[in-house]
Amino acid sequence: MKIHPFTGGIPFDASMKRLKEQFTIEKSDVAVFEPGLVTIPFSQHIGAPNEALVTVGELVKKGQAIAKSDAFVSGQVHASISGRVTDIREVPAAGGGSQQAIVIERQLKSPTAEVLLLDELDVFSKIRAAGIVGLGGATFPSHVKLSPQEHHTIEYVVLNGTECEPFLSSDDYLMQQESVKILQGGEIIRKHLGAESLLVSIETDTPQALRKMRQTAQKLGLEHCKIIPVPITYPQGGEGQLIETLLGREIPFGGLPADIGVVLFNVATAFAIGEAVQERKVLTRRYLTVCGRVQTPQVLSFPLGTRVRDIIDFCGGPSEPLAKVLLGGPMMGKALADLDTPLTKGSNGLVLLGNDDISHSVEQPCIRCNRCVAVCPVRLEPQNIDLAYRAGDLYTCDQLVATRCINCGCCTYVCPAHRNLAANITKANQEIKQIKKELAQND
After folding, report:
1. Strands 156-161 and 197-203, how do they pair?
2. What pLDDT score was predicted for residue 210?
3. Which residues sit opposite 232 in a β-bridge?
């Protein structure tokens, strides 16, 4: 297929490439981590919050539903290990603050058989009952994506294997290990939506994954499937950017990919869908990259609800004093305030940083160089939004369409004045949405 490079973006410079080489994980088998305790947050998705289905002291089996909501836009949560519920309490949340969670301690004498989905459930019901959400980070409930509006005609299903965040290798390893289930999951989605084609995007710097997925597609005889290598430009894995690259189409402002005939799923989500439909398994585990200043950098499979602290200990602990631990990659990851924070469905990476890995540059006045404008993948004016926000002018921020920002961090990365543009645009975005929400409620 013809590639249509998206607007802006960053082909990372030599400094990032050098750091990427230091943080690269050498090829190895994916480790399997089985902690003795998990702390599973009630809600791990965009949408209505869940309510607990279990009580303290209750024995639960792996795969058993422990929290759910009857709302359509929701994603139920399941026990990721078999054991006893020892507590239901507030725990740290990745984005700050706290969240309600169910604590389960593994017990050798507890039931060990995994709870599976019912055979008679249809594809849609299995995916919903399995609690599958977008595993690329957005955590939007997958069954909702599988219910497009009547006026939508879906032509393409895109599986996103474009892991554009530096240092992360979770999807790369998943495609090498589980290519069959990923492509089977993609075909399940394509047939359910009646789409003509299944497209799988993989960046050219993951040649082993690219080769494995091509071999598997040929072996399975998938006539409607194309495995497409895409350029190494951040943020290539963004929904709008990837669709523009593959198809030359742009999502209308305020619209959805379905408006232009496309539905996009992360490869990890397709894998979970394949397991749910074909093996009746619910979503209880996922792959995670642990890299940076850690004794044993690796990709591992962990049960949802595992604490960050336990993961770091499993990897041998820090290799030097830590200055920051990022949940996610270096561009869009969130710095954790508490290592007892549990990992959830949207967790795909931990990057441990030492003092020398962090910029200590002092912020300077904007020099109007427009570098931030040149790299913005959604064609915003980051410097002007930032200046308006600092002046308390949310009206101008709204006029400059701050709410369209995808928080990729490109503007901050290239700013020679070391201004934290992305953070201020994100704050403006949140405050504008909150004001509009209050106005709508008042009306």
Report:
1. parallel
2. 96
3. none
**Residue 81 Cα distances to 62, 130, 281, angstroms:** 5, 15, 13
For the chain, the residue count is 443
Q: Specify which residues 307 forms β-bridges with.
A: 342
Tokens of 4: 């249509």
d(CA 439, CA 168): 40
Spell out the residues 6+ positions from residue 88 whose beta carbon is closer than 8 angstroms to its own. Answer: 52, 55, 56, 100, 101, 102, 103
* Burial grade of 287 (CB within 10 A; 0-12, 13-18, 19 or more): buried
Task: Calculate ∠ Cα 294-295-296, nearest 5°.
Answer: 95
Residue 158 pairs in a beta bridge with 199, 264
- Cβ distance 33 to 286 under 8 Å? no
Q: Phi then psi for 395, rounded to 5 degrees?
A: -60, -45
pLDDT, tens digit, 9 for 90 and up, residues 37-53: 999 999 899 999 999 99
* pLDDT of the residue at 14: 52
Let me know: does 423 contact 402? Beta carbons within 8 Å. Answer: no
- 41 preceded by a cis bond (ω within 30 of 0): no
Q: How far apart are CA 432 and CA 398, in angstroms?
A: 7
User: pTM of whole model > 0.85?
Assistant: yes
pLDDT tens for residues 341-354?
999 999 999 999 99
Count of CB atoms situated within 10 Å of the CB of 370: 11
Q: How confident is the model at residue 425 (pLDDT cuts 50, 70, 90)?
A: very high
**Which single residue is written with the structure tokens 């725990």?**
91
